């Protein structure tokens, strides 16, 4: 089953908690703190694998969670780092953050990888917090929380050559005749509903990958039919074989079909309309006196397009077509990206903290620094609580709350923690 889109949830592992312990040896009184740090949580990594061809695995499994880091131990022993969770995806997978629609990666090379959720840092053991004023700190940090997000995966097939054209013009028949691929061939439109890849082998050990792209129809650029799904797969091809039915069996005009399909390409993506196209005039065995082929050749000659009369069923003309495609692939040069104006993206200057009012009247503080501090603080330990209060004062959060009109006894909420405010 060919699946080219998927939605998954990824969550990296939380860091392991730091240890609070003290050195205890027979002849070493007052040995001091020796709590070790927690291990790092596992990250979630997507890896492009050439042996994977579809996103079908994500149809049955959508939640991916890495393991948490190990806890620190006494004698300054570090906790075990959790293994990263590596998820294989096909070449040509585009990874997007669902919330922001930002493209995180375009995985087009075998072995290419991207970290989509970074594992949390391990909490520090109590030996980190010893000072001249406090030689016996009893607290340690909790592990840093992991990251989580919903991702959208979109697959664009990687093929050297794409077969382009209306439904039932013979694209699948061409692929069957020149490769070992076995797309379904039937006498009805949209027999092919998913891209099918085949390896075309020529003499002297030459070969290239050809994709049978499902047929396009008028309005595909606006999403009519399955237009966007089909057009997306043409973007990565180097050469297009535009297959036209010159038999006139279905009352279609090949010149009109050619113009309509190219108009859809241009509407969807200007770059697609500039791709090198070779015209395959198929079904010449069914011409029966029609002048469609002659008209098409004259029309294309005026526009500098090469026309190859073929019959996909008998194989007539196929060798000449494939040899020409090979020559074009050998001289193919990737079109550079058009840059009309240099755009510099600047990070928006946002305050470290934001205060809002909840429906129940509580003052809600948000911001990565304070949220991480709360998550990594052990509020059951008095020394840890006093350290939190010192950092709170350093962040000048009291002044921010007063600006919002807080009073004694009001509730302050940070993530899942609630505090009662007092001057």
Task: Itemize the secondary structure elements and their pairings.
Layout lengths: L4 E7 L32 E6 L13 E3 L19 E6 L2 E5 L5 E5 L5 E5 L30 E8 L5 E4 L6 H8 L17 E6 L5 E6 L14 H8 L4 E7 L8 H15 L1 H4 L2 E7 L9 H11 L4 E3 L8 H13 L23 E4 L5 E4 L1 H8 L6 H13 L2 H7 L7 E4 L2 E4 L3
Parallel strand pairs: 1-3, 2-4, 9-11, 9-12, 12-13, 13-14, 16-17
Antiparallel strand pairs: 1-8, 2-7, 5-6, 5-8, 10-11, 15-16, 17-18
Structural account:
This protein has 423 residues and is of the alpha/beta class. The protein folds into three domains: 5-155, GTP1/OBG domain (Spo0b-associated Gtp-binding Protein, Chain: A, Distorted Sandwich), CATH 2.70.210; 161-330, 3-Layer(aba) Sandwich (Rossmann fold), CATH 3.40.50.300; 354-420, GTP-binding protein OBG, C-terminal domain (GMP Synthetase, Chain A, domain 3, 2-Layer Sandwich). It is built from nine helices and 18 strands. The protein has helices spanning 171-178, 227-234, 254-268, 270-273, 292-302, 318-330, 368-375, 382-394, 397-403, and strands spanning 5-11, 44-49, 63-65, 85-90, 93-97, 103-107, 113-117, 148-155, 161-164, 196-201, 207-212, 239-245, 276-282, 307-309, 354-357, 363-366, 411-414, 417-420. The strands form four sheets. It has a six-stranded mixed β-sheet, with helices on both faces. A hairpin with a 5-residue loop joins strand 10 (196-201) and strand 11 (207-212). The chain starts with a strand and ends with a strand. Mean pLDDT is 82; it is low at 183-193, 217-228 and 338-349.
């Amino acid at each position: 089953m060919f699946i080219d889109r998927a939605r998954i949830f990824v969550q990296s592992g939380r860091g392991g908690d730091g240890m609070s312990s003290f050195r205890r040896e027979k002849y070493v009184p007052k040995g001091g703190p020796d709590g070790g740090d927690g291990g790092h949580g596992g990250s979630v990594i997507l890896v492009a694998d050439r042996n994977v061809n579809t996103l079908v695995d994500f149809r049955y499994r959508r939640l991916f969670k890495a393991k948490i880091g190990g806890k620190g131990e006494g004698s300054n022993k570090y906790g075990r780092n959790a293994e990263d969770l590596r998820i294989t995806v096909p070449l040509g997978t585009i990874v997007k953050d669902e919330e922001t629609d930002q493209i995180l990666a375009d995985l087009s090379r075998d072995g290419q990888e991207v970290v989509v959720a970074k594992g949390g840092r391990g909490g520090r053991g109590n030996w980190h917090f010893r000072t001249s004023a406090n030689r016996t700190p009893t607290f340690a940090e909790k592990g840093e929380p992991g990251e989580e997000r919903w991702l959208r995966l979109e697959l664009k097939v990687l093929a050297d050559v794409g077969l382009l054209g209306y439904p039932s013009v013979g694209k699948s028949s061409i692929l069957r005749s020149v490769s070992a691929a076995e797309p379904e061939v039937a006498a009805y439109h949209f027999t092919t509903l998913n891209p099918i890849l085949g390896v075309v082998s020529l003499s002297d050990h030459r070969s290239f990958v050809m994709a049978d792209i499902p047929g396009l129809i008028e309005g595909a650029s606006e999403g009519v039919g399955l237009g966007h799904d089909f057009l997306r797969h043409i973007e990565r091809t180097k050469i297009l074989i535009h297959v036209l039915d010159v038999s006139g069996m279905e009352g279609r005009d090949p010149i009109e079909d050619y113009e309509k399909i190219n108009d859809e390409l241009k509407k969807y993506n200007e770059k697609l309309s500039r791709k090198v196209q070779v015209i395959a005039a198929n079904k010449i065995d069914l011409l029966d006196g029609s002048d469609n082929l002659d008209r098409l050749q004259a029309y294309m000659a005026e526009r500098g397009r090469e026309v190859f009369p073929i019959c996909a069923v008998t194989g007539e003309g196929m060798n000449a077509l494939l040899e020409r495609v090979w020559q074009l692939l050998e001289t193919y040069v990737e079109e550079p990206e058009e840059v009309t104006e240099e755009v510099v993206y600047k990070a928006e200057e946002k305050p470290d903290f934001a205060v809002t009012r909840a429906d129940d009247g509580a003052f809600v503080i948000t911001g990565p620094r304070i949220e991480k501090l709360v998550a990594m603080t052990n509020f059951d330990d008095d020394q840890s609580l006093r350290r939190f209060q010192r950092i709170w004062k350093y962040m000048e959060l009291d002044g921010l709350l007063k600006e919002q009109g807080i009073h004694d006894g009001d509730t302050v909420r940070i993530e899942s923690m609630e505090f009662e405010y007092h001057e």
